[in-house]
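Troubleshooting: if your tokenizer reports a length mismatch, compare your output against this known-good record of 296 residues.
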Amino acid sequence: MSSTPDVDARLDPESVRTSFDRASAAYEAAAVLQARVADELLDRLAFFRFDPQVVLDLGAGTGRATSELKRRYRRASVVAVDIAPGMLREARRHFGLFRRFERVCADVLQLPFANASVDLAVSNLMLQWCSDLDRAFAEIRRVLKPDGFFAFTTFGPDTLRELRTAWATVDDYTHVNTFIDMHDIGDALARAGFTEPVLDVERFTLTYPDVFALMRDLKTIGAHNVTAGRRRGLTGRERLRRMEAAYEKERRDGRIPATYEVVHGAAWGAAGKPAAPVRAGEVHIPVGAIRRRSSG
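Known-good structure output:
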């Protein structure tokens, strides 16, 4: 099965770039969930004894996690990569005496790095913004050394399900981005040539006073709808009212919920080893199995 969404759900790359560029100044103050997930991703790396020479933070945003990677791997060349120039400008705020890192504005679908030049690639909640996951994984695999390591998070299909369901009662436009299932992500990793993939899911529920507070939050961090099938122009008051009424059915204890399904993934470069078997679209190895391995 291809990891590329249907035509209406496909992302517009230029809209993605523009959206995050505009959101860069306010992003970090609002991206509470993104910061929490990044911390978990970095915590998982602590199980490995890495001594990398080159580290990429793909979709680095404002560089918060990049700075922590530099603190951990002081001898490494750590590079923040992001599609939005504004995000990389904001990343300067995370520079420190021992936390200086490089910044490169680039799309993960066309990385400006040599083949087999990277020891460790990390990506926090960026891959869901790629229009072609197969191509993204192929590029990351290309720049990764055979014994290199790739760790990432991305959003799964239950993310913002309440908002998607509410809009579905109003019209047939794609108001919410489409997210790829964990099993299809595993397939894409295998197709790209990664080995020993590990995938697991964590769910979060954020609550808001109303649906408009949720939508403002999404806009503030640049995460609003940028699909090809989105409605062009203004959404009328009647449509908004009907969507709000549908979402209100989810209200509990005075708040409305917003579900986020976070997929954690990790894999090694080829290194001559066979990939984990993929059967019926499933690649799921216990996290403990990979934590016993050390590198470096």
